[in-house]
From TrEMBL:
Lineage top rank: taxon: Eukaryota
The DUF7705 domain, residue ranges: 29-476
Signal peptide limits: 1-25
Keyword tags: Signal
Protein name: DUF7705 domain-containing protein
A Pfam short name: DUF7705
Organism: Carpinus fangiana
Length: 483
């Protein structure tokens, strides 16, 4: 009997140790207010920006390019928190915080819509998923975009697309408020075009188009976001993303207070991103489709950004899964590579080590234009497309990323290969090269935006991308998963 009790005690002890160890190994919290997109009462917003993430000029009759669809459910009835009059607010129309400057009006409108949509939660309230649409046209004669944060005068046209005056316009936006259909299906959408005066109801030939439709069964599964983006001759460079942004502070690419879904900000290395992605059409060879795009901001000396566009630097890391996207980084183009690569076991491989450096793992690296101690050769990032200087680390599928759960070869996750991913974004982002001034303490890599979508980069013909995104979540591990 004593022996049996001893064996039973040992068995119970092992079970308890196993359960506790397993719990510790998997212990995490969701960083987003709507974990896995499973909350019936949706919060989703829309923002459009010109080449440098500003407004410049509102589209006629559309108001400021910010909108939201946020609702509660009561007895299978949809109660909207945002009226269409709120979505149509534009310069000259008052609301709490309204100003007359067209760029700052949009900022305040986003905060106002956020206040209407806000959900109280722990450790902080949150507002909405953000659909971001961006027009890549840049009228260099307009003087609208700064150069690495510094105001510059107009200059002659060059490498940026623009059909002439007005090419940086904001889009026509149509909104179908979320409705309950058939008693158990919720559906709504945003769509529209940049081609002012055109009628998308008459067909899409020759015009640009964007659409995001969201749908969910009440009480079951995830919201399913179906995206469509079409370029045109006048608008050959368009971007469409679904973003989880900071609920307060600067989201990636902005220099003012924004609103979003990230109630807890993920910090490298201890977070992962899970999502289901099914790409129906890729958008052609110029479509830089991002399985994930993470954005943050810190200064070259490692300090957090404070809104000073002359010293702040937007930092991005993007995994491009379009198999048509080549590696610009190569032994013959070292300036398109980061100075070194760090392996999962923390070994540093310099880019001139032609035997070991994984050139095919990098599409392109570019350094911030305001950095003062750059290692040559170097390519600096476009100085105009963000309100401050920026740094990009663009990755491609490669075996070196296997440990982080990313695609290891071209074609994985592409058209016809829809998958559910669990990506160790935190572990990978902790080992990527980002510029920092010599002798300064390492910046904390805190990510204020995580998004999925595509950038169709100056297509030479009309292209269409279509994809479906669901189950999106950002998981923060409360006990370290990386040493």
């Amino acid at each position: 009997m004593e022996h049996q009790l001893h064996v039973l005690f040992m068995w119970v002890t092992l079970v308890v140790i196993s359960v506790v160890s397993g719990a510790r190994g998997k212990q995490h919290i969701s960083a987003v207010g709507d974990p896995g997109m499973e909350r019936d009462e949706l919060r989703v917003a829309f923002e459009a920006g010109n080449f440098c993430n500003e407004v410049g000029e509102e589209a006629p009759g559309m108001g400021s390019p910010r909108a939201a669809d946020c609702f509660d459910l009561s007895n299978f009835s949809v109660r909207h928190r945002v009226a269409e009059a709120d979505n149509k607010l534009g310069v000259g129309k008052p609301f709490p915080g309204a100003v007359n400057n067209v760029d700052l009006y949009a900022v305040q409108k986003e905060l106002y819509l956020g206040s209407l949509c806000q959900v109280e939660d722990t450790p902080s309230p949150w507002q909405f998923w953000m659909i971001m649409l961006k027009n890549g046209n840049y009228d260099t004669k307009s003087g609208l975009c700064p150069e690495n944060g510094k105001k510059v005068p107009p200059f002659n046209p060059g490498r940026f697309p623009c059909f002439g005056k007005g090419c940086m316009n904001q889009p026509i936006l149509y909104h179908q408020q979320t409705q309950l259909l058939g008693g158990d299906t919720l559906r709504g959408s945003f769509n529209g075009t940049y081609d002012l005066g055109s009628d998308i109801g008459g067909g899409l030939d020759g015009i640009s188009f964007f659409e995001v439709v969201w749908e969910k069964k009440v009480g079951a599964g995830s919201w399913v976001f179906s995206h469509k983006l079409k370029t045109s001759k006048k608008y050959p460079w368009l971007m469409l993303y679904l973003r989880a942004d900071a609920t307060k502070g600067f989201s990636g690419g902005y220099h003012y207070d924004t609103r979003g879904m990230l109630k807890t900000l993920p910090e490298s290395p201890n977070f992962k991103v899970s999502l289901t992605l099914d790409i129906k059409q890729g958008g052609g060879p110029k479509s830089q489709f991002y399985l994930t795009d993470i954005g943050s901001c810190w200064k070259n000396n490692g300090d957090p950004c404070d809104g000073d566009v002359l010293t702040d630097v937007t930092r991005y890391s993007e995994m491009i899964i379009n198999p048509d996207t080549p590696a610009w980084c190569s032994p013959k183009s070292l300036g398109s590579c980061p100075p070194y690569h760090i392996t999962p076991d923390d070994k540093k491989i310099f880019r001139n080590d032609t035997t070991h450096f994984p050139y095919q793992a990098y599409h392109y690296y570019c350094a911030p234009g305001n950095a003062k101690h750059l290692e040559q050769p170097v390519s600096t990032c476009d100085p105009y497309s963000n309100p401050q200087a920026q740094e990009l680390v663009q990755l491609l599928p490669h075996p070196i990323w296997a440990e982080y759960g990313y695609p290891t070869k071209q074609g994985q996750g592409w058209v016809g290969d829809g998958r559910t991913w669990k990506l160790d974004v935190g572990g990978l982002s902790s080992r990527l090269y980002f510029y920092q001034d010599p002798g300064t303490p390492p910046a904390r890599r805190i990510w204020t935006s995580i998004d999925v979508g595509t950038e169709i980069f100056v297509s030479d013909k009309d292209e269409i991308a279509e994809w479906i995104l669901s189950d999106f979540d950002v998981l923060i591990y409360t006990s370290p998963i990386h040493k």
